[in-house]
Amino acid sequence: MLKSVTESFANIIHGLKVGHLTDRVIQRSKRMILDTLGVGFLGTSTEVFHKVSQYSKIYSSNTSSMVWGQPDFRLPPSYAAFVNGVAIHSMDFDDTWHPATHPSGAVLPALTALLESLPQRAKFSGLDLLLAFNIGIEVQGRLMHFSKEASDIPKRFHPPSVVGTLGSAAAASKLLGLSLTECQEALAIAASFAGAPMANAATQTKPLHIGNAARHGTEAAFLAMLGLQGNKHILDLATGFGAFYTNYSTKVLPSLDSHSWLLDEQDVAFKRFPAHLATHWVAEAAAAVRRHLVLSDGALLPADHIENIVLRVPDVQYVNRPFPDSEHEARHSFQYVACTTLLDGDIAVPSFFKDQVSRPQVTELLRKTKLEHPSDNLPNFNTLYCEVSVTLKNGATFTECCNTFYGHWRNPLNQEDLEKKFRANATKVLPPNKMENLINTVKKLEDLEDCRVLTTLLKGSEETSKTSSM
Amino acid sequence: MHMTLLEARDGMLWFISTYPCKVPCAHRWGFWQKRSVQRQSGERHHSNIFPLQSVTESFANIIHGLKVGHLTDRVIQRSKRMILDTLGVGFLGTSTEVFHKVSQYSKIYSSNTSSMVWGQPDFRLPPSYAAFVNGVAIHSMDFDDTWHPATHPSGAVLPALTALLESLPQRAKFSGLDLLLAFNIGIEVQGRLMHFSKEASDIPKRFHPPSVVGTLGSAAAASKLLGLSLTECQEALAIAASFAGAPMANAATQTKPLHIGNAARHGTEAAFLAMLGLQGNKHILDLATGFGAFYTNYSTKVLPSLDSHSWLLDEQDVAFKRFPAHLATHWVAEAAAAVRRHLVLSDGALLPADHIENIVLRVPDVQYVNRPFPDSEHEARHSFQYVACTTLLDGDIAVPSFFKDQVSRPQVTELLRKTKLEHPSDNLPNFNTLYCEVSVTLKNGATFTECCNTFYGHWRNPLNQEDLEKKFRANATKVLPPNKMENLINTVKKLEDLEDCRVLTTLLKGSEETSKTSSM
């Protein structure tokens, strides 16, 4: 092999130009940017965001960047990337890709932080931002193709902490205009920051995986710019990036002329409520079953009529929580999402508030719920399905199955619903006119001449900015 | 802790356990603990099975509960030597290029509380960044201590502690024993974690151990010094795990020292976040999907209670290096020096290279120290071949042997061309058992072979106190004036009697007259 894999990555990061972007990639990534901003705004009201903000506040620096939605709160760029990244992933509401990772949260906050911190005279257009963003996404996708296990729901390392850190380093390298060698070194340095264990998913620490990916990727790019050197073949080696995988099998990327974007072939999924993606199948199946079980007033029939509830789901241990004990656990519980949907008819952001999680009516239903793992139901976001069966005391059983939920890449959220989600998320942080302004700016991002227009809109507003935690 | 059986269903017993929280706090104070009963088929119903006290809890218990009275004389003596050696290599490391780069980077951050960069009186950074750059300095030349199972324990812990000591309020007073306790807790946690996998006993292949266990050791030490509650100690370990882990491929590059720097920095950060109430997975050490993610085989054990506590450092000492290169090269250097005695001319120089037919090194199979023609100082520090040839040529090997201009000397390259490695099957990549044999065959057919089983500096043949202090002086001389150097040596020597650690941290400043900020 004349060129190492790592070199081919550096080549792509360094050499791709705005002209390489396709219409579909532009359209898809603009939707990702809008969705990510919205969930980030919403996330600034969470406890975990509050804690990492308190921590990050101790740092100041000459160049600073803004915390989304908080006009007076500025941090050094890598910490702005950190806290904004935590906000984005704080409620498990951000986008999901296939192979599985949350691609946007690792990249976008790093880029907005850098955009703000660069000198006044540096001008970046919307297309510059789109290019750097898509490079950050593309690098993550290409890395995940190096192992079969990446295609399944992860078991050892949380993918955003692995590929996200390198994606962020790639995007930052692009925006900062690093040389070919520096792009390569940035990947190597970033690898030494990558990797967090899955056991911290479904805990309050999980959002830090995305925050740290954004922060450390940025840091890796800065260190590369200062001339720090790592292993130039980091992606080629089993002792390098391969350390994060049991089976690792690399491929040199195509040349710039033959470049194609993974995002062109494979879209992301957007969530309709803040919980693990696998629960979205359950929610739709549960909503469908519920229609058989409602009384005339629309409420669910009394729980004591229900004998049992069976969920046929893939075997994903960390979303198997019969009695979740916190909002983070509830977001990672097939059982909780099923029972809440059966009870309430729908599931949304407030369904995961602490007081909702501990409702006795939900617990009553949870007691009747059990999981089954059909052997044909693999833990893979492209192929999994969820079946919900409710058996009544009188023996009647009602079963509904969901193969593709609305929001999945096979059945994408339409533009109207995507913008609705954004408005609902951003409403506490942005006044209505700014919200519409931001939606329109992102909608026409490829025509934007100066990204400062965009970053200014991220400030929120003095009147409606809130710093209280949830 | 009180346990009540709630119910039994679906082959599982559900308990609720509560433990009282003595001070008002925002934490939950109850949790579900699941136990599974085996079904008839033998399948486990639920994969999260914990013993009555989880392993993670037992670690938190030790971190929180150990007191100065638990320290033994031998642990105090050994850890003071580690502290002195670490300070010395840290001072020396402030002259390296990698230190200069991370300093330039870290300079952009300031904060209200700040800590000092060792040997640089005017250079202050936020505590976690002081820990970072000092940690990088310590590991910058691969000159810091090594333990068995293999890691570099002190560099992850000491800079975190000195940074914290400085940043805490004036009224907070920490004695030398407080520092020794926190330090040894940081070391102990690393050692205990490495006992959870057999692969940790061998020279690592996937993740660089300081980045794995060092991050948690640093979190443990910081937790102790900051006086975190039992729960917070546990959460700090969980949070730290999400920062741990860097691939071995970056060893032998300029990035490697950041593994120690980051361990110190992120461990500190994890402790701070835990103090702010951030929560992670309370069973992080128990789970294969937790800390076990860094290992292929992971098998945990609950730590002994406080009453039965024993220190690993009591049973297993560290090795101190005599020159800044990978530990395995120290066996090679001694064997090569021994062979050289057969090959010298009357003036003490090595016989001409064209008399040498070949040089064979019989070493364990450690790929990342197998570099036939190293290309940089970092590579030279990780090269059996380079260390052997340099020792044969010069008669000794020391700090200057790794400078760039030395690495590229033609006389060395000439010898490197004649050098090859062999990996005897009985020579395992394990710092407790490995050996190195050096064979030089001359053109006239004569062969000279010497073998080293235990080099001077290894835990089986420790550096005596005089040589340890000599190493310190040689390392610190560019940064500390002579009187401060002696002062520091004496302060560390009597650390257990020190009433206020500020005496120690003040001495780390170096001096306005001799401080240097130039890079190598």
From TrEMBL, chain A:
Belongs to the PrpD family. This is Cis-aconitate decarboxylase. It is an enzyme of class 4 (lyase). Residues 7-249 form the MmgE/PrpD N-terminal domain. Cis-aconitate decarboxylase that catalyzes production of itaconate and is involved in the inhibition of the inflammatory response. Acts as a negative regulator of the Toll-like receptors (TLRs)-mediated inflammatory innate response by stimulating the tumor necrosis factor alpha-induced protein TNFAIP3 expression via reactive oxygen species (ROS) in LPS-tolerized macrophages. Homodimer. One of its GO terms (biological process) is inflammatory response. Its main location: mitochondrion. One of its GO terms (cellular component) is mitochondrion. Its EC number is 4.1.1.6. The keyword Lyase applies. Coiled coil: none annotated. Residues 273-446 form the MmgE/PrpD C-terminal domain. Keywords: Antimicrobial, Immunity, Inflammatory response, Innate immunity, Lyase, Mitochondrion. It is found in: Mitochondrion. One of its GO terms (molecular function) is aconitate decarboxylase activity. It holds the Pfam family MmgE_PrpD_N. It catalyses: cis-aconitate + H(+) = itaconate + CO2.
